[in-house]
Each structure stands twice: as C-alpha cells, then as structure tokens.
C-alpha cells in the first residue's frame, strides 16, 4: 500500500515538474522561460525576395523594407526535408518572375542553437525549375536569382520590425523578408 502511494506521488510530482518546465508539445513553455529557437526553426517558412544589398543599394532599415518590391516578384519557401531526419537539411520551393523552382540546402557544421544571428555556411544542391518563357528582362532576372540561390555561401537572420533572411553570394547578398 505504501509502495503504491509513493509510486503515485512520484509520478504526480514528475508530471507536475515536466508540465511546469514546459516540456510539452506546445513550443511555448508554461514556466515563462524562452524556448530554444534554432536556425532551421527560423528558416522554415515563406519569404519574399527584396533585392540585392549592394547592387540595389538596399539599406537594411526594416521599416523601409516593408514597401520594397523588386521589378520581378520572387518568393522562397523553406521546409524540413521529408527524406532526412537531419534538421540541417532543408528543401525549398518558390517562384521567380516566370517559372517555379525547387531544390535543397544543407546548413554547415558550425551551426549551433544560438548561432542563428551569425553567418552560417550553407551548401546548395541542384535546382530544378519549370521551363516557361518570359520577356528578356524577366528571364535575365530569373537566371541571376536562381544562380544566386545555387551559389549561396552563407545565411544569416536579422530580427527587428521584420525578420530578414540574408543569403551571402559572391560579391553581394540576396535579401528576403518573412511573409506575414
């Protein structure tokens, strides 16, 4: 009888401790402490392409970026790979002025839970796309945009009024803003 009482008490206390510390399916802990947010968690979602930081002379002033739109709209959606248990492998899909595309990236080995505000190396895989034709200007934009995604070297998140995704490419950076 005493053994059952101690067992029930232990299970009750352990359940209360787990509940209070926020070890739940809900990402918001009940204890008021901050959940651990990793770079892959932040990257997953929908992003709008804003432009190239150097070429378009973009100032990373988040209030001004709300109204920025490139001549040719492009977007990007990142998600966890369905074929891998590795949370550093992400797939992407999107549209780039004329065609739709998809591919994958792998986050570098230097990625840690707290490094999402620092530059993180990436490796891109092949990018597949539809083959529709558009104006010369739209096709030139698309070629440059998809080439930028394929040669991306690093990613970085900046938070503020908007959540920004910066993709370091040779000689410039691609800038995306989180879709709301």
From TrEMBL:
<protein>
    <submittedName>
        <fullName>META domain-containing protein</fullName>
    </submittedName>
</protein>
<dbReference type="Pfam" id="PF03724">
    <property type="entry name" value="META"/>
</dbReference>
<keyword id="KW-0732">Signal</keyword>
<feature type="domain" description="DUF306">
    <location>
        <begin position="67"/>
        <end position="162"/>
    </location>
</feature>
<dbReference type="InterPro" id="IPR038670">
    <property type="entry name" value="HslJ-like_sf"/>
</dbReference>
<dbReference type="InterPro" id="IPR005184">
    <property type="entry name" value="DUF306_Meta_HslJ"/>
</dbReference>
<feature type="signal peptide">
    <location>
        <begin position="1"/>
        <end position="20"/>
    </location>
</feature>
